[in-house]
């Protein structure tokens, strides 16, 4: 470990998550399996949306395909580096690699927040204003909304990376975390970090609170509209589509709020909570959407050539 002197750090050492040594091989295999299944599951969803004409013509499933790309990206940024924690010896990450990891994690993570909001808005229009839906959520608008989400996410990630790494890092280089994230890296700065902590809290707080509030408002209207549907089959289909989205939002937002929107602590629970948005949620999203969404299940059957599968209208 480098000691405090006038030389700035050129690399960091990620301590990873604590674990019993006898579980090293098991945990390496477990996260390797999680990573492979995450990539395959999200790739399957992406291919299904692209090749099925009934899905790729609908904004909801275009958003789902983009979500799969984001999930594959977040998993690839975090999980392989996490797996290195379960191998022998120290595996330092270069300073530039740490910057890139923090930027891309917050870029993709905030884009995912915006995308969840767009998906909730899409469901609100489809269920609460079905007659106006084709006009209000057309292909051009959905493309612009997705582009806006990517642009806003990129700016958010750049802001967080610039604020974090404009500080000098000249002392200990051991990051007490399994990836380069803002709270863990700021503890190593050789300068006052109070402004950074305040800006991070406000910036992430605004993104999370505004997105979650819009999602909540959308679903209040959606639930009221679903309860007015007269047929049980109509209510079932509406809840099938919306239930998958609500499950994903809950699994994603609760850990993020726990990590970033509370007073600074160095709790072991932070690492456990961070596993959800970085490893568990990308793995669960394809499962949730194939198990809870009837249209995706039908599209998968059509893609593998099930002759008994008919499209739902």
UniProtKB/TrEMBL annotation:
GO terms for cellular component: plasma membrane. Gene3D superfamilies: Rhodopsin 7-helix transmembrane proteins. InterPro entries: GPCR_Rhodpsn, GPCR_Rhodpsn_7TM, Olfact_rcpt. It holds the Pfam family 7tm_4. One of its GO terms (molecular function) is olfactory receptor activity. The chain crosses the membrane at residues 26-49, 61-83, 103-121, 141-163, 204-227, 239-261, 273-291. It is a multi-pass membrane protein. The keyword Cell inner membrane does not apply. Keywords: Cell membrane, G-protein coupled receptor, Membrane, Olfaction, Receptor, Sensory transduction, Transducer, Transmembrane, Transmembrane helix. PROSITE patterns: G_PROTEIN_RECEP_F1_2 (PS50262). It is found in: Cell membrane. Residues 41-289 form the G-protein coupled receptors family 1 profile domain. Putative odorant or sperm cell receptor. This is Olfactory receptor 10G3. It comes from Bison bison bison (North American plains bison).
């Amino acid at each position: 470990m480098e000691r405090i002197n006038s030389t700035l750090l050129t690399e960091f050492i990620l301590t990873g998550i604590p674990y019993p040594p006898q579980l090293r091989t098991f945990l390496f295999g477990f996260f390797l399996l999680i990573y492979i299944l995450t990539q395959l599951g999200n790739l399957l969803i992406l291919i299904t949306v692209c090749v099925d004409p009934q899905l790729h013509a609908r904004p909801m499933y275009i958003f789902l395909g983009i979500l799969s790309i984001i999930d594959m990206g977040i998993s690839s940024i975090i999980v392989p580096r996490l797996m290195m924690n379960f191998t022998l010896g120290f595996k330092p990450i270069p300073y530039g690699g740490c910057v890139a990891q923090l930027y891309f994690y917050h870029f993709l993570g905030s884009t995912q927040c915006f995308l969840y909001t767009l998906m909730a808005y899409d469901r609100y229009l489809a269920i609460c204003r079905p007659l106006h839906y084709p006009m209000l959520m057309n292909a051009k608008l959905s493309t612009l909304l997705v582009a806006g989400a990517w642009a806003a996410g990129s700016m958010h990630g750049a802001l967080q990376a610039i604020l974090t790494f404009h500080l000098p890092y000249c002392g200990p280089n051991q990051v007490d975390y399994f990836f380069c994230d803002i709270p863990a890296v700021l503890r190593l700065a050789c300068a006052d970090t109070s402004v950074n902590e305040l800006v991070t809290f406000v910036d992430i707080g605004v993104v999370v609170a505004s997105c979650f509030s819009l999602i909540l408002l959308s679903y209040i209207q959606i639930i009221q509209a679903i309860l007015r549907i007269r047929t049980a089959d109509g209510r079932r289909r509406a809840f099938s589509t919306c239930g998958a989205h609500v499950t994903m939002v809950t699994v994603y937002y609760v850990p993020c709020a726990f990590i970033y929107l509370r007073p600074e602590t160095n709790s072991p629970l932070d690492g456990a909570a961070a596993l959800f948005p970085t490893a568990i949620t990308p793995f669960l999203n394809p499962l949730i959407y194939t198990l809870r969404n009837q249209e995706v299940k039908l599209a998968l059957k059509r893609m593998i050539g099930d002759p008994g599968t008919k499209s739902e209208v």
